[in-house]
Amino acid sequence: MRFKTPDTRHLISGSCQGPPRPRRPATSTQFLSSIEINISLGIHFINGIIVPEHPLEFSRPLDLEHILTDKGRQIITATEEECRNLAQRFGIKSIARFSCNISVVESQGHLGGYCVQGDIEAEIVQSCIATLEDVPQHVQTSFTIHALESSKRKELYPGQEDEEDIEFLDEGNLDGGEIAAQYLALAIDPFPRSAAAPETLEINK
């Protein structure tokens, strides 16, 4: 499987400044209630963070220090079973392929830690909202987070965790699989339409 070279321009000098983590799916869902979003994606929010309603389907604890001192990157790939479980979680027909190319550099900020970038590729299938035909989607998206030891939590100012997209390590590990799954969910087209779908839908009164 071929991956594009990750865009690490925002990681120069250890800067963790990158695109902020989106808090909901695509822009077209901005008028949906949080309940509708939860139903469509099989997730819920606690303090703005996406949390699964069941055990993690794609868990990949990553030793960031090992990755850093090795090659600086690692590819994680979901198995067929994990893809099936994630498809069920997201409420879509299938996920044929799901991988994430993760890059790690040291952060030079006063809090230390790591800057972690992930480049996601996936092939999914949904049902058209009008015709129920299969609608394939090739997903490419990326994320950048600042990973810190949990002991650093007390050094943050109010709201900093969300502003800088900070994740805390669990015994030195970061669950790259769950983070990648969250970003995949956010990149899924909330209103898939097939080529045969009409421009407008008539609603019978």
Instruction: Give the SSE string.
Output: HEEEHEHEEEHEEH
Low-confidence stretches: 1-14, 21-42
Strand content: 25-35%
**If helices are DSSP runs of H or I spanning 4 or more residues, what is the number of helices?**
5
Structural class call reads: alpha+beta
Task: Report the biggest beta sheet as strand number plus sense, adding barrel if it closes.
Answer: 5 strands, mixed
Radius of gyration: 18 Å
What is the 3D form?
elongated
Physical arrangement of strands within the biggest beta sheet: 4-5-6-7-8
Task: Give the proportion of residues in helices.
Answer: 10-25%
Mean pLDDT: 77
Number of strands: 9
In whole angstroms, the N-to-C terminal distance is: 50 Å
Concise structural overview:
With 205 residues, the protein is of the alpha+beta class. It contains 5 helices and 9 strands; from the N terminus they run H-E-E-E-H-E-H-E-E-E-H-E-E-H.
Name some characteristics of this structure.
alpha+beta, 205 residues, disordered N terminus
Structure notes:
Helices cover 20% and strands 31% of the residues. It has five helices and nine strands. The protein has a five-stranded mixed β-sheet. The protein has a two-stranded antiparallel ribbon with strand order 1-2. Strand 6 and strand 7 (134-148) form a beta hairpin.
Topology (SSEs and partners):
Elements: H1 34-41, E1 43-46, E2 49-52, E3 61-63, H2 64-69, E4 73-77, H3 80-90, E5 94-106, E6 114-127, E7 134-148, H4 160-163, E8 166-168, E9 173-175, H5 176-187
Parallel strand pairs: 7-8
Antiparallel strand pairs: 1-2, 3-9, 4-5, 5-6, 6-7
